[in-house]
Amino acid sequence: MRKFLISLAAVAAVTAAAPALANEGRVDLHGGLVWAGGDSEATAGVAAGYDWDMGSSGFFGIEGSADQVLVDGADPYFGLSGRIGGKVAGGKGKLYAVGGYTFGEGEDSPHAGVGYEHMLGAKVYGKVEYRHFFVDDFEDLNAAVIGVGIRF
């Protein structure tokens, strides 16, 4: 829990400093599947982040997330990630690579993945994302989610 609070404070500090570079914040709800070793379970979560423009065709950002595998006895897990990518589809889409660290009551692990967001309206976007978790003591874990979010 201490790692989560320190990570959350770091995200808040960077986000609070962002108005001088203001581009866009975002929040989304997502759900999907996690799998490893032939077993799979449903998962659901929330993510919040901030993206900065790198010219007219690129961006980078930070994100904090909280997810729950939807099975009895599973502990929530939290992530702190960075992402970098390009603007596509006439500026309506964002294709990106994501990487960071996931932690919780179980095994902490680095993660890496790819995703795509597409604007569905003036402020609403849909997303698909895949992440691979490099777990030390257990078999590596994978997650694929879809979600909907709001940019502000």
Short description:
This protein has 152 residues and is mainly beta. Helix content is 10%, strand content 64%. It has an 8-stranded antiparallel barrel.
What does this structure look like?
This protein is mainly beta and 152 residues long. It has a single domain, classed as Porin, CATH 2.40.160. It contains 1 helix and 8 strands. The protein has one helix spanning 2-16; strands at 24-36, 39-54, 58-69, 77-88, 93-104, 109-119, 124-133, 141-151. The protein has an 8-stranded antiparallel β-barrel with strand order 1-2-3-4-5-6-7-8. A hairpin with a 7-residue loop joins strand 3 (58-69) and strand 4 (77-88). The longest helix has 15 residues, at 2-16. The chain is globular and about 45 Å long. The protein starts with a helix and ends with a strand. The model is unreliable at 4-21 (pLDDT under 50).
Specify the biggest β-sheet. 8 strands, antiparallel, barrel
The assigned structural class equals mainly beta
Radius of gyration: 15 Å
What series of H and E elements makes up the topology? HEEEEEEEE
Instruction: Tell me the span between the first and last alpha carbons.
Output: 28 Å
Helix content: under 10%
